[in-house]
Structure formats: C-alpha cells, structure tokens
Design a protein that fits this description.
The structure is a homodimer.
Chain A: E1 14-17, E2 26-32, H1 36-43, E3 44-45, E4 56-64, E5 67-77, E6 88-94, H2 97-109, E7 113-114, H3 119-126, H4 132-143, H5 147-157, H6 162-184, H7 195-224, E8 226-232, H8 238-255, E9 267-270, E10 273-278, H9 292-303, E11 307-312, H10 318-331, E12 335-339, H11 347-354, E13 359-360, H12 369-380, H13 395-415, H14 421-439, H15 445-452
Parallel strand pairs in A: 1-7, 8-10, 8-11, 11-12, 12-13
Antiparallel strand pairs in A: 1-2, 2-6, 3-4, 4-5, 5-6, 9-10
Chain lengths: ~450, ~450
C-alpha cells in the first residue's frame, strides 16, 4: 500500500512516442526522469540543453555519431514544472516511423527505457501532480467523443469531486483519531469524539455520497452514450432515418479536413450527447407464431434502451399502430412515435395518425429531422448539460462510494448502541479506506496497475 | 510564374492538426500567419501570449467563453524564427478527436482558416526558408521507411545538390546576360560572352548533370525499394523464406512498444535497404503446354526485378534445376540460387547441387538466412550506402535535369556554328528555366500545386 504523501523518487528515465502512429507531419517523443536532459543532450547537436531554462524550445539535430537522424525541436520542462513533476523533454521530429524508431533506439542506447502504458501519468500521480481520479480523467478526456463525455472528463481532471471528498475525509480522519485515543484510555471510559458531531458529519458525508452515487446513471449514459432502439415494421425506413440523423453531424466533421473521426456507424451526436443506436430486426405483430421468438429478442433489446423511436409507415393500418403502441407502453421506456414518408402521406392518413401525437417527417428528404432531435432530447431528459454538475461516470468510483456509504451506515447503526469504540473505529477506518481509494490517498499496486495499464503508451 | 525572390506576404493565418489522427496522448495543432498569436491569445487563458518571447512554452487553458476545452501547452515561434518564417503557434493538447475538433473550430471562428495539404511547407518555400527540392525532401523524409530512403531525403533536405546547381546556374545566368548584351549591340558584331569559356562552363554543368542523372536508378531503387522475385517450383518454401527474411527485422521493430510500423507484408529491410518482393505463381518447366501462359506472366514479372532468388527443393532433379537455371540466365538479371530444407538434404544431393554454387539454408529453422542476406546485398551491389553520395530519387528532378542537359546540348551544337546569338540565347534560357525548376528559382502555380498537393495536411 502506498500513499501519495510518500515521496517516490524514480531513478530511471522513461521514453515513448506521445503522438499517434500514422500519417502526419509531426511526431513528439517524450522523456521523463532524472536523465531526460542528459540523455537528450548526448544525441542532440545544438545548444547545451543542460544550460537552458524550463519551458524553452531549441532547434538542432539528433545524431547517431556523425549521421544526422533528423532536424528537431526540443522542448524542456524542468522539475517540478512539468506534467510528471520530473524533468521532461519533448522531441518534436518529422513524423516518419523510421526516424521515430531511430530516435527511440538511440535514446534507449543512452539510458532511457521504454515507458509502460500510462507511466507518465502514473508518475504525475505518484509525484503529487494529480490525484487518482484526476489521473483517470486524463484517459477519459483522451477517449471523449462528445461534448457531454468531454465536459465530465474535463471537470474531473480539473478537480471535480476530489476536493470535496478529500475535505470530508479529513474531517472523518479527525474523528477516527479521537476514537483511537478513546481506545488508549479505554479503562477510563472517556469520550473524546462527540457522538452527535460524528453523526452530523456522517449525515453530511452521506448526503454527498448519495448525490454522487445517484449521478452515476446519468454520468454513465453521458460517457458511454444513450442506448436507443429504432423500432417499426421492416422497410419502414429505419436505416434511412439513422442516416438522416447521422448526416448533419458528419457534414460538420468533414468541414475540418485532416481530423478524420473514427465514426462508429450507429452513434450519433445530438447537441453534445451521444446516442448509441441498437439494431433490431424490427417489430411485427405477434400473430405470426413462427416469428414470436424473433420478436421476443427484439423486445429484450428494447428493454435495454433508454429511448425507443417507433417508426410508422404512412400506409400502415391505424389498428396495427395502435396495437404496437400498446405493446411499447408496457415496456415503460420513453418512446417517440414517428410517421415517416410525410411527403407521400395522404391528408386522411395524417388525420388518422394525429391521434397518436407523432412526429411527421421524411427521412429521405431530410425533413423534420431537427424537430425529431429536439423531441429525442426532451424525452431522455438530458437536454441541458449543466457544466457545474459533478457527475460520477467511473464504475470504480461508484463502487468505492457505495462501499464507503455501507461502512458509514454501520457506524451510524452502532454509534448509539452498546458497541465498543474499537468496532466503531474499524468501520470508520473502512469508510476512510474506500473514500481514500477514489482520489488515491489509499492505493495498492494492483489498483494502480489496473488503472494505468488501460492507458495508452506515451501518456 | 513566381520567383522565390518575390516577397509574398500572406495576410491570412492557416491552421491544421500536425500530428496523426488516431490513438495517442498528445495532439499538436499548428497555426501560421500574422494572426497566429492574436487568434490563439483570444481563445487561450494564461499569460498574454503577445508579450512572450519566441521559442517559449506556456501552460494554460483553451476556452470557448467560460467552457474549458482543454488544458494545453502553447509553443511560440516568432517570425522569422519559425519553419514558415511567419509567426507560428503550436498548441499541444490532449489527443481527443473531440478536443482537437473543438479547438480547430474555435480558432477558425476567430479568423484562422484550414490549411491546404503542404501549405506550411509551401509558405516556408515562398518565404525563402527552403528551396523547392528541400521542400520536396520534407515529404520524402516523412515517408522514408528505410535507412537508405531516410539518408537520401535528409541529405536533400539539408541542401543536397541544391547549392551546386544554384552555383552553376548563376554562372550560366552571367553568360546569358552577356549574350543578351550582344543582341543589343547586334549591328556592331561584338562578342561579350567568350565562347570558349561558355563551352567550358557547359562541359562542367553537363558533368554534374550526367552524374546526377545516372544516380537516379540507384536513388530510385533506394527510395522505392529493390524489386525482387523469389522463383521456384510450387511448395518449395517461398513464403517460409520470405517470413524468415522478414522475422528478424520485425523482432527489432516490436522491441519498441508503441511504434507500430505499417508493415507491408512483402517488404523487407536488409542493412538499411528496402527489398520489395514481387509475388509470382512459381516457375515450372514449360513442357506443360496448358501452363505456358502462366509461366510467361511469371517471366514478365521476373524481367521487372533487379534480383531473382531461385529457390530449389532438395528433392528436385538436377536436370530440372539445370534447365530452369539456363532459362534464368537468359533474363540477364542477377540471381541467387538457394537450396532450401538443408536440414533434410542428403549428402548425395548436396554434392549434386554443389555444382550450381548455391546458398544452402533452412527457411523453416532460420538457418543460413544471414548468409543469404549478405549474398543478396552483394548481388544488387548496393551494399554500402555512402552518406556522402548525392543521389537523385525524384522523377521531377530527373526530368528537369534531362531537359537541362538537352538544351545545353543544343547550345554546344550551335555555339561554333553560324547560328545567331538570339538562338543561342534562347537555348541557354531554356536550360536556365529547367535548372531553376529543380530548386524553385523558377516555378509556376501548376508546378507548386502539383508538388504540395501531395503533402499531408499540417505539413
């Protein structure tokens, strides 16, 4: 078990490519550790880097003996004014795999070693530059692909609930030490820790915990997307609608040449929130017994959705639509009724369908799409992303919050009873442990390994 | 037509992602132009960038109003101390597509415009930071994937033949102006340009041109790889041999985690030179008439090769091998005879084959592979990469060199004859034009468009 208060001095210097592999103009190689500057200095021809100030950039060449590997820019960050709080050097080179490989090998020959995934951020954490939940947010930030997931990660990286939890934890530590003191004076039956004050603090902590725990559902949906099913008879235009919803967003993306987004075909972004579309076989009336099983599967998928878009063909019989809507209502999931092909809809049918209060649109002609988007946002009730709301989106945090809450519940249960101080003390320590796990006051090697191994190399 | 001596002031500011798209820790966004610093200053919260020195780095946040988009490092390069010779800003952000897109859009909202492919390097050329052949070398450098192609590109980027050609061109310009002067005094029949000196200069230029032109074959092979065919009967172990040749190189590459090389399956790198393997159906004796056509295609491919590795099975009849070797010799391409499966080769067969002076190896057990590599290098006669040799590897340069040479040949042809000075002048001007095209003293918009449109965006 480590605590971030320990000073962990790394004697080795790590190196990795910090920019993505692939086609581009610039590659950035990052070194961190006590030898970052000397190692770079050995392979760099230009100014003497050991004599330069932090946050300065120097032009020169990287050489292997007399062979020029590349003309580069070297950026210096002198400890503690760096991401890792160690000396950091960034070598900005031409983005050729061959050059990057040569520079990495060369630096490794002179004493640097390849960084493990997330090792730069791990060092930032161990050296006190970030707490654990902030470090985790760095990975979330890089992975963020919507305004909502981005805002959550950014907020967490910039502090989020860390300070609030740290403050509450410190108050709880105070009580823990008071109760420890009681144990020392056990024979004298003194009470250093005021039980009413302790209860008041636990209520306060629990209030925060419950707020954070209950934010998880929304946080998770914002991070991972809102699962949506487009239901309806076959050939009613489900994929045309999906494309119509997708297209506008794509147009915006392709405006900026060079930032190819790895679009997942069935994810769309509406006003900063990601909607994840789940494919279904389409629903039919259950009259056909043979298809009953397929329909069952479709309903199972629909139950996992946060929203169902029920797409109606203008030729469909009113009775059939009515029947299917009744089925949908049983699922108790928000749904939007949409009548497609509004361009060929007869006035009579329009009147007939008006009863269901649907959105009329033409997926093919892209008419009524914006209105549908607004309706979708209203239905999932995530229309406003409040940037001041602190949301929990990390399942590890959720679990630690829940375990803290359980331990505190036991404290409350026992504080007025006949339970001795040492039992009380044990539960408070448990609560402190789980609370500390979130921000990293309490860590184990396994926990750190588990968190940072999921990072990319170079971060 | 432009000349680099013209000062072309760009009033607009360009922006692009300079690092590859994909998974990584850092993304670098680059701005260049008179508004690079003001635009960044508008969206950056931190120090006032307009008051900072060149080659300094500043930590802060990029904000859209009050919304924090990212915590970033901003690097400043103040004109003319930058790649483009304009003010350049590099924003180093977390490598999330979402963040990069937001920052690009935000900077574009405040006056930057998306850069076209190669536009940063085009500006560097137009502002006199690089000549044209150097600018082209930047693209070659990024694309370089072997020691040979890297060395050639690096040498060209750092000057290469540019200075030599520029110097010769200036001497030729001197003669051109003397001959122009003769035209002004045409009636007086004076000769300002000494014809013997002119001829001496043209001989000197032609000597350089011929050296460069004849270096193209080697340069091209070094840049694009040596085409090699592995021939032999089916199932003789061609792909096992290819894998054995590939494997060692791959092992070195995978040592360095994080630098995934986009390996093309059939390219291998031996001592810094790329060998490009051409797939063939395998050769058989032409006795089988039905297969004659397939064999013909194989031979056609073999003729395009610079080297043939002829792979023999230890069970093959000596007569058959002899017959095929005779066929190969007719092609007049260097070839290496290799007997595979040396582990199961009987001493009798070994004796039988010794006559062909082959390399014995076991592709499966990776025995004899190093010896084969040495043999391959010897055969293609590129064993030594002399880093001092200036090689032409760009077909555009080759063509300009050839056209220069042709124009100069006409000058030589006419200088002693009865041709008037104005014809002489015309051919010299032609030579100057083509010579100037190489380094960019002479450019047309089409030429520039053609060169820079092949660059990646952000370079």
């Amino acid at each position: 078990m480590n605590t971030s208060a320990d000073h962990i001095y790394h004697t080795d210097t790590i190196i990795a490519l910090a920019t993505p592999a692939g086609s581009g103009a610039i590659g950035v190689i990052r070194l961190s550790g006590p030898q970052a500057v000397p190692v770079t200095n050995t392979i760099f021809r230009g100014k003497d880097l050991s004599k330069q100030k932090s946050h300065t950039i120097h032009f020169g060449t990287i050489r292997d003996g007399e062979i020029v590997i590349d003309e580069v820019l070297v950026s210096l960050f002198i400890a503690p004014s760096s991401y890792t709080k160690e000396d950091v050097v960034e070598i900005s080179c031409h983005n050729s795999t061959f050059i990057i490989e040569r520079i990495l090998k060369l630096a490794m020959k002179h004493g640097a070693r390849p960084a493990k995934p997330g090792e730069f951020t791990l060092r930032a954490f161990l050296n006190g530059g970030l707490d654990l939940s902030q470090a985790e947010a760095v990975a979330d930030l890089i992975a963020s692909n919507s305004q909502a997931s981005h805002q959550m990660a950014m907020q967490q990286m910039r502090g989020g609930f860390s300070n609030e939890l740290k403050n509450l934890r410190e108050q709880l530590i105070h009580f823990a030490s008071m109760i420890e003191l009681e144990l020392d004076f056990a024979e004298e039956d003194v009470e250093f820790a005021n039980r009413d004050d302790l209860k008041a603090l636990i209520y306060k902590i629990n209030h925060v915990l419950q707020r954070l725990i209950s934010s998880f559902e929304q946080g998770n949906v914002m991070k991972n997307g809102v699962p949506v099913v487009i239901a309806g008879k076959p050939n009613v235009g489900k994929s045309t609608l999906l494309n119509a919803l997708l297209n506008e967003e794509r147009a915006i993306v392709s405006e900026i040449a060079g930032t190819t987004r790895d679009t997942i075909e069935d994810e769309i972004n509406i006003h900063g929130i990601t909607f994840r579309f789940i494919d279904t076989a389409g629903i039919r009336t259950t009259a056909d017994i043979v298809e009953a099983q397929g329909v069952e599967r479709t309903y199972a998928k629909m139950k996992a959705a946060k929203l169902i878009i029920y797409l109606v063909d203008p030729e469909q019989a009113r009775a059939e639509v009515e029947e299917q809507l009744e089925e949908l209502e049983k699922l108790d999931i928000p749904f939007v009724t949409v009548v497609n092909k509004s361009d060929i809809l007869s006035p009579q049918k329009q009147l007939e369908f008006a009863h269901f209060n649907p959105n009329f649109l033409s997926a093919k002609n892209k008419e009524g799409i914006d209105e549908l988007k607004e309706e979708i946002l209203r239905k999932v009730n995530l229309a406003r992303i409040n940037t001041d709301d602190v949301l929990v989106s990390n399942i590890r945090h959720l679990e630690s919050l829940q375990k803290t809450s359980e331990a505190l519940a036991r404290v409350l249960e026992n504080v007025d009873g006949s339970v001795t101080s040492d039992f009380l003390s044990m539960d408070i320590k448990q609560a402190l442990y789980y609370l500390g796990e979130i921000t990293g006051e309490v860590t184990t090697d396994d926990l750190l390994e588990n968190i940072f191994s999921k990072f990319c190399i170079g971060k």
